[in-house]
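Reading a protein record of the kind used here takes only a little practice. The integers have meaning only within a learned vocabulary of local backbone shapes. With that in mind, consider the following protein and its fold in token form:
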Amino acid sequence: MASVLASALVAAAGLGAIGLFRGGGRRGGAPFGGEDSGHTTLLALAVRTQPDSMVAVIGWGGDAAPSAITVPSSMFITIPGHGDGTVQSAAQLPARSFAIALSNALGVWIGHYAVTDAAGLARSIDQTGGIKIGDRQVSGRTAVGYLSAAQGATLWKDVLQGWLASGPSVRAEDFQELDDLDAVAGILGAAGDATVQPFPTEESPSRLLVPAGAEVQRVLAQAFGSPTRTPVRVIVLNGSGAPGVGERVAERLIPAGFQIVASENAASFNHARTSIVASDRAARGAAAEVRQLLGVGDVTLGPSSNLGEVTIVVGEDFTSG
């Protein structure tokens, strides 16, 4: 437990101040591959290049125009079901896991995902005759070469802007993983005039690159037009030993306005029933909502905590349900 709380403290320092965006997800979690509920339609994009992956969120919400936000691969996040890591490490996971991790990190439910590599992006760029970067028309090979250069992360914004403006070709063979070909094509096709901006970050006291607190709310609200709600910070501990618990919990809680600030194993795997602990009386309502979303669990009042309002020890009643 001590190691969990230590890692949670680091994560909370960088992520706890983020206001969560509510995409209107249904109770029990929004489905990947279907239409997002509410008014926000978003795509998590990863291009697995060397030495670092290029990551972005693309879409729009409500009356907002299409927008794209580039996310630095070195940003430190909590990856539900996988502990703490960077966006780079999340981008190497299966695409569904990557999208859940990015949803949790940004505080906005991302309903669709697409993952490609340098060769796939180059093919897509060449399908439309190249892209314009500055005053130059460049081929796919040249564009992905920019991303592999020393300043690749800086040039990612320009490459993404040019690719979106070209009306990208979306073919299944150019992507390693897609949740829904038509949905991804629709999002990318509508993003030709998207404004591309960087995700705001700052350095934590432990010198990790983390989301820049309240600035994240402003940027995401401007980009995607989603309403915000005060974040409810949740610590998730796997008390059953079953794989994938953190991700399953996250996809139920994130659409409802919760954020996982730590995701680790419990001290033991012999928990038959799920325990949902409110850190104080003010958090009992949030704990009861967690109980409703998970469909299992006993709600109790525990000691006050600065790490999260609710701690969940996931038992066998959830994993066997």
Remarks:
- Confidence is low (pLDDT under 50) at residues 1-38.
- Residues 25-228 form a domain with the Aminopeptidase fold (CATH 3.40.630.190).
